[in-house]
Structures are given as structure tokens and as C-alpha cells.
């Protein structure tokens, strides 16, 4: 991952031992990464990853064989499909936000040829012009994604607030306290 997108400033993980080991602490220290841990027994903190895992599992269920042993063969194709679809929260696909342009997949080629079979190659642009346009496009994508994300967060907060209930505790009332099993 680091070889593709660089070393992050911070990483959010749950409190699994694979993320809290001495090796990971050493890696974080060596690379200057701030490790942020989710609250124990509170998966909502890591909601984006939990939602992605749910989506990916659903996609895998539709494609794997009855034995479920060939899931690894489908994974690259399903991840590509996920990354090319615009997300409701940002309005852009993960691929667009990372690279600044829409990915061209097999279905795009088929659709384009179906819609316009006579389309030829467009005139090539100069490299400087291309870079300037890419910079502007990425900046616009980031701004629009931030705006869309803010709208989605407002919507999610409104939805959560409607579902949440306020709990009133009285002095002396017994409560169940969950203590984390590891630090």
C-alpha cells in the first residue's frame, strides 16, 4: 500500500493484537505514523471499513462457487468494480479521487463502441497542458468530494440522531460496564 499511495500521517485501526503488537508500534515509530485506535466494542468508529467489508462480502457471495474456495480468484475483479463506481457520499468513484480521472473498464469500452462505433482517437495534447488540466481536475474533485462528504455526514448525523435515544441514569442505578480485554 505504501508503495502506491505513500506513507500516511496517521492510521486508524481497531484494537486487534495484530495492530497493537510491538512490531506495529516499531513500524509506526520508524515511519512517523500516528496510530489511532477505535474505542473498544464500538465498531461504529470504524464504520467506513465495516461498511466496505459488508459490501465486499455481498459481492463475493454472488460470484464464488458453492464451496466458497475460489473467492481469491474473484477478488481483483470485484475490487476493480467497487473502485470504479461513484460513491453516494462523495459523488466520485474511489479511482477518480485517487487518480483524477475515470477508470476505463471493459464495460466502458463496450458501451462506448456501442454508442459511437465510428469514434476515433482524439488529438493528443501537450504534456504540460495535460498536467495543468489534471491538476485543475483533481482540485475540483477534491472540493466537490469534500462538499458531498459534508452533506453525507450531515445526513448520517440526522439519521443517527433520529435513531438514538437518550438514556437518563439515576444516582445509585445499576449499570453494566464493559471493560476492554486488552490495551
TrEMBL record:
Ranges for domain Integrase catalytic: 1-102
GO molecular function: nucleic acid binding
InterPro entries tied to this protein: Integrase_cat-core (IPR001584), Retrovirus_Pol_polyprotein (IPR050951), RNaseH-like_sf (IPR012337), RNaseH_sf (IPR036397)
Single biological process term from Gene Ontology: DNA integration
Protein name (record): Integrase catalytic domain-containing protein
Organism field: Silurus asotus (Amur catfish)
